[in-house]
Amino acid sequence: MTEHTVRSFSQDLEELSGDLARMGGLAEDMLSDAIQAIASRDLALAETVVARDPQIDQLQVEVEKKILRLLALRQPLARDLRQTISALKIATELERIGDLGKSIAKRVKLVDGIEPVNALKGVARMGRLVTAQLKRVLDAYTAQETDAANRVWVRDEEVDEHYQSLFREVVTYMIEDPRTISACAHLLFVAKNLERIGDHCTNIAEEIHFLVTGEQLPVERPKVDALNSN
Amino acid sequence: MSRMDPMPPLRMETVVAARTAAVKADVKVKAETVSVFYGDKQALFDVSLDMPEKSVTALIGPSGCGKSTFLRSINRMNDTIPSCRVTGRIEIDGMDVNDKSVDPVVLRAQVGMVFQKPNPFPKSIFENVAYGVRLHGLATSRGQLNEIVEASLRKAGLWDEVKDRLNASGASLSGGQQQRLVIARAIAVNPEIILMDEPCSALDPIATAKVEELIDELRSNYCIVIVTHSMAQAARVSQQTAFFHLGKLVEAGPTEAIFTNPKDSRTQDYITGRFG
User: What is the spatial distance between Cα B244 and Cα B220, in angstroms, rounded to a whole number?
Assistant: First the structure.
C-alpha cells in the first residue's frame, strides 16, 4: 500500500507492527523454552521463562498506549482502523500466551519425577504442535496472509484432538498408579494451557482475517470437545 | 472470540445487506447516468446514485472530483452557468427535474440549498426567514407568517438564541448562527430535499457540532445530501456515503461499510489519507 500523505502516520503504524512482532517473538521463545523445560526437566530454563514474562506485559502496556494515541491523534479509517483495532486485540492474545507459557514453566518442578515418562513425551509433542501453530500465525500476521491464517484456524482441531487423547492417557496413568495423581494433575493443567494457547492462535488468525478482508470468520468451527466425548 | 458463544455468526455482508435494504427503501432522488460539461470539458461522467428519503447521503472526494457539480445538478443550480450542459436524468419522486414543465424557482423551493459560507440576506433575522415564505405565498396572514418563522427557527435550533432580537440584522449573528439561520430560511419554504455544500467548513467545532446535531434531527423529515471534506463529518452525519474521483462515482454504499471496509482501492486510499 502507498504511503500516507502524512508520513508520520505510516511510521506510527509500522512502529506498532514492530512492537507486535517483538511481542510475538518473545511469546514464541517463552513457549518453546517452557516445553523444552518440561520435556527435559530443566528447572533453570523454566526459571528464565518465568523471568521473561514481565517483558511481554510491559510491551503490551506500550502497545496500548500507542494505540490510544493513534486513535486520538490520527483517527484511522478503513484498513488503518482495522489494523489498529486488530493490533490491540492481538497484543492481548500474545500477552495471554505469555502468561500461559509462564504457567507451564512454573509447573516444571511440580511434574518432576513423574513416571512414566511417556506422558511427558505426549505433552512435548502437543507442545511442538502448538508452537508451530503460534509460529505460523505470527508469520501470517507479518505477511498479512489471510490464507495462511485460515489454515492455522482450521488446524486448531488437531490441537484439540491431541488434548483429548492426552487427557485420556494421563487419566489412565492416574488410575494405574494413584501416587502419580498430583504430578499428573499438573500435567493436565499443562496440556490445558497448551490447548488454550492453541485457541489464542486461532483468535489471532481471526483477527488477521478481519484485518485483511474486513470480514469476520464464522463463529462456529468444527471442534472436538474433550469434555463431551469422554 | 469464544467459540462457545451461542450467538449466530455475524457476517459483515449480512449487516451490509440489511443496511442496504433499509437504505434502498424509499428513493427520493434518483440520478441516472448524469454527465455534466462545462463547455468542452466534461466534469462529471455517467453518475448513477439513489438518494433515499429521510436519510443523509454524504458526497466525499478530493477537490475538483465533481461532487459539488453533482450536488448542484439536483436543483439545477448549474443552469445559472451559461456554458454548462447536463445530460442523463435526475428524478425527484419520479419527476424529471430537467423537464421543460419544471419551473426552476419552484424546484429550488422544493430543494433547499445551504452553502459553504453562510449567506444571510442583508435584512433582519425575521425577514431572512420570512422572505421565501412570502415569495411563494405560503402564509395567508401575519399570524401564520410569524408561526412559520418561529417554527423554522426552532427546527434550526436557533429560536432561543434570537427570539429577543428578531429585528436585528442577520449579519450581526455569529458564523454558526448565520449558518443555522440560512438553514431555517431553507426549511421555511417546506422543502423535501436539502442540499448542503460544505456547510461547516467555515465554522468552529462547537458551531459544527450544532449544525451536525441539526442535520441529524432534520433527517427524520427530509432527504439530505451533503458535500463535505471532513471524513469524520461524513462518518458522523450520513447513512450513505458516495466517493467521487476525477468526475466519476467510484463507490457508494452504507457509510459504515465505506469507512470500515471500502471495496475500491481508490476509496481506501482517499479515506485513509493516502492521496487527495
Answer: 26
**Residue ranges of chain A with pLDDT lower than 50?**
224, 226-230
> CA-to-CA distance for B32 and B233, rounded, in angstroms?
26
B128 in a domain, yes or no?
no
Angle between helix axes A43-74 and A7-40 (nearest 10 degrees) is 160
Q: Which residues of A touch B (CB under 8 A)?
A: 1-6, 9, 75-82, 199, 203, 206, 213-216, 218-221, 223
Q: What's the CA gap between A5 and A74, in Å, rounded?
A: 12
The answer to whether the Cβ–Cβ distance between A221 and B13 falls below 8 Å is no
Tell me, yes or no, whether B33 lies in a domain. Answer: yes
- Mean pLDDT over all residues of chain B? 89
Number of domains in chain B: 1
In a domain, B143, yes or no: no
- Which residue intervals of chain A are DSSP H helices? 7-40, 43-74, 78-106, 117-143, 146-176, 181-213
CATH code for the domain in which residue B262 is found: 3.40.50.300
Reduce the secondary structure of A54-100 to three states and give it as a string: HHHHHHHHHHHHHHHHHHHHHCCCHHHHHHHHHHHHHHHHHHHHHHH
Report residue B3's pLDDT band, with 50, 70 and 90 as the boundaries.
Answer: very low
Q: What residue in B sits closest to A9 (Cα-Cα)? A: B273
Question: pLDDT above 70 covers what percent of chain A?
Answer: 93
Please name the residue of chain A whose CA is at the shortest distance from the CA of residue B275.
Answer: A5
Residue B226 lies in a domain: yes
pLDDT digits (tens, 9 = 90+) for B236-245: 999 999 999 9
The residue range of the domain holding B239 is 26-119+192-271
A82 vs B contacts (CB less than 8 Å): 260-261
Chain B residues touching chain A at CB-CB below 8 Å: 1, 3, 5, 7-13, 231-232, 235, 259-262, 267-269, 271-276
Is B1 in contact with A82 (Cβ distance < 8 A)? no
Of B75, B68, B76, B77, the closest CA to residue B43 belongs to B68
Domain ranges of chain A: 7-213
Nearest in space to A52 (alpha carbons), one of A104, A90, A101? A101
Question: What are the φ and ψ backbone dihedral angles of A195, each rounded to 5 degrees?
Answer: -65, -40
Which of A10, A79, A159 to probe by mutation at the B interface, max B CB count within 10 Å? Answer: A79
What's the angle, vertex CA B212, arms to CA B210 and CA B215, rounded to 5?
A: 115
pLDDT digits (tens, 9 = 90+) for B217-226: 999 999 999 9
- Single out the residue of B177, B175, B244, B243 nearest to residue B214, CA to CA: B177
pLDDT at A157: 95
Q: What is the ipTM of this complex?
A: 0.71
- Domain A7-213: top CATH class: mainly alpha
Could you tell me the three cell numbers for A190?
Answer: 499443562
